Amino acid sequence: MTGGSNVGSQAIGARAGFDHIITYAAYLADASLEFALPVQLTIEDAPTLLRWVDSPLMRYLHGVYRAAWSAKTLTEAEVRRALESQLIYGLKDEAGHIAAWALLREEDKEDTEDGDRKRLRVDHFDGEPNAVTELGKRMRALPRRNSGWWSVAGISDYPPLVSGAGEGGLHVEPGSV
pLDDT tens, 48-104? Predict the structure, then answer.
């Protein structure tokens, strides 16, 4: 995985036989008191959440999701690990089914993207389009206790996800593609 402006890495990758399969951009939004908090999902939510492992978005992403500056395969084991680590938040419908979910990045003391640690990092969103929009708004409420924090999400170029993120108040960070 490399930045869009890193022409050298892209050329080396192409010569080594790597293909470009996904484009991500960083989306930013101010923290907000305007929205309700999302639900923190637990291991009990695993059976419902696992249906998203083969979602249209995951098929578009070739089964991988952004995990900081790398990509990981979204597997049942990875979902369970993230649930146990309390890294997944979601939005449930009236029947209690997960309509959208977001995977936070694990805290990394070596995070070179953000030296001042004022960003809540979301590495993956998935769900029904309208629910993703609502969840995007609610994710902005998580860092609200810390004045000046931002929410940032690595969003792929999947059109329904880009639309939902924009409607949720997240905007592309300049130079992040």
Answer: 888 888 888 888 877 777 777 777 888 899 999 999 999 999 999 998 889 999 988
Q: How many CB atoms lie under 10 A from the CB of residue 120?
A: 20
Local structure of residue 96 (DSSP, 8 states): S
Residue 128 dihedral angles phi and psi, to the nearest 5°:
-65, 140
**pTM attached to this predicted model:** 0.77
Q: Scan for tokens 């249906």, then name that residue.
A: 51
Tell how strand 64-67 and strand 70-73 pair up. antiparallel
Distance CA 146, CA 81 (A): 27
Q: Which helix (H) or strand (E) holds 40?
A: strand 39-40
Do 64 and 73 meet the contact criterion of CB atoms below 8 Å apart? yes
Q: In 3-state terms, the chain is what percent helix, strand and coil (to 5)?
A: 35, 25, 40
